[in-house]
Amino acid sequence: MPPILKSAVDYAAYLALRGSIALVQALPLRVCERGVEGLAWLMHDVLRMRRGVVEENLQIAFPDWSAAQREQANRKMWRHLFLMVAEIAHTPRKVHRTTWRDWIELERDDLILQTMLSEGPKVVISAHYGNFELGGYVLGVFGLPTHTIARTLDNAYVDRYVNEFRGRTGQFILPKTGSREDVERVLSSGGVLTLLGDQHAGPKGCWVDFFGKPASTHKAVSLFTLSYEAPTVVVGVQRRGDAALRYRITGIDSIDPRAEGFALGTTPLLTEWFTRRLEEVIRREPTQYWWVHRRWKGEPPVRRKPKPQVA
After folding, report:
1. pTM given for the model
2. Which top-rank group of organisms is this from (predicted)?
């Protein structure tokens, strides 16, 4: 597609997105809650969007579930995803320093604060669970700025608009590709790096069990912690009930590589640690996880045994 035509198409898509968000913002959250029921029905029952992927993922994660349980979880997941979009549209107008308690509960926030307020570089790990976008936004509301590594969207107009939302309270976005120097600058200056720890990393990733099946995870998630001796906390942002914009931000667990006797000093051990913690929080409310993406791809590479040396 010629660059001029692509730019025009991208801008049209951006305007459509802005119009949709403006419409959502004009609607009360209660209306949005009813509207997402219909959208979930459309995606699940009519369009059957990514039906096979979600079904396969749920069979791996919950082999004891019946077909009816998986069906119900699939539909509820779509409801959650659509409601999450509506919540993001309403967040800047509703969640402020003086109002956040009306919407957000904190659980084990001592783990979060101990990590975020410690000296030197810090790392926060979460997953595609609950409203993880809200988590970064709220940390900024608390006066705790963060830097997040995220993939740059193909549509430059949409990418800029999304990052403007993220940056309203101090959540700065670093591109997934080519941001090595920026990451080094953030951590070397004692900043906070937030990462999603449940993304597929291909055959060269670190393979650890996730819901009982090996999954490839980016080694960099652990290397940031180990290389910079950065205190690290795993955080979950879970919806409370079915109502919109009612969340609980939980500190799941934390570690400090500087502590005496630190026992997770290798990439596999640390990767297994935070993967287990993420699995624990997902099990609390599985329908809030993004089962639409393929977490399990391929198989771990077979390691060749060293040839015996001939004397």
Report:
1. 0.91
2. Bacteria
